[in-house]
Amino acid sequence: TPHKNDRTRQRRRPGAGRVLLFRRRSKEGGRTTEKLGLYRINKLLKSETNKEKVFIVGLDGATNDLIKPWVEEGLLPNLARFMQDGVHGDLATVIHPLTAPAWTSFMTGKNPGKHGVFDFVMRKGQGYDVRLVDSKVRDQSTLWKILGDEGLRVGVMNIPLDYPPQEVNGWLISWMDAPGVNGVFTYPESLGREIE
């Protein structure tokens, strides 16, 4: 039997409810609030002129117990400026906190059980042979695909497990799982030739 909210979900703008929420610890009682990220993305999707811009920097394994003291010591002036002028906070991660499923959860807003990425490798069939995981394994749309489908231009660079590059409304440069500059590692493909 369909859930009573299924009809409501179908009427929403495509992607509007499927984006990753930005999690930030509030100062009052350590509660987690997710409203900021949802508001920001929905504001972008509703914008008539689409002049709003969002710049996201993700640092793998860089926790605030390391970053904040270095910022206070003046060792990371550019990151300090981003933190001062923008929004930052502790992000929740996935279980098990590995790069491959965590970044895939970031880009899809889904947990590993829904996007299908649990590690950098996966079993081949029923045996013990493994193969490398790539973007074709991911079973959900990415944030940049959703935004692009809504008419917003995006630029994506150096995200783990984003090879082969998907078509986006803008540009995309694959990172560590790409085979190198001799293959197609960008969208559009011509961007790769410019980088060479």
Would you give an account of this structure?
The chain is of the alpha+beta class and 196 residues long. Helix content is 33%, strand content 12%. It contains eight helices and seven strands; from the N terminus they run H-E-E-H-H-H-H-H-E-E-H-E-E-E-H. It has helices at residues 6-11, 35-46, 64-72, 77-85, 99-108, 112-115, 143-149, 189-195; strands at 24-25, 32-33, 121-123, 130-132, 154-159, 170-174, 186-187. Strands 5-6-7 form a three-stranded mixed β-sheet. The longest helix has 12 residues, at 35-46. Mean pLDDT is 76; it is low at 1-27 and 31-40.
What is this structure, in a nutshell?
The protein has 196 residues and is an alpha+beta fold. The protein has helices spanning 6-11, 35-46, 64-72, 77-85, 99-108, 112-115, 143-149, 189-195; strands at residues 24-25, 32-33, 121-123, 130-132, 154-159, 170-174, 186-187.
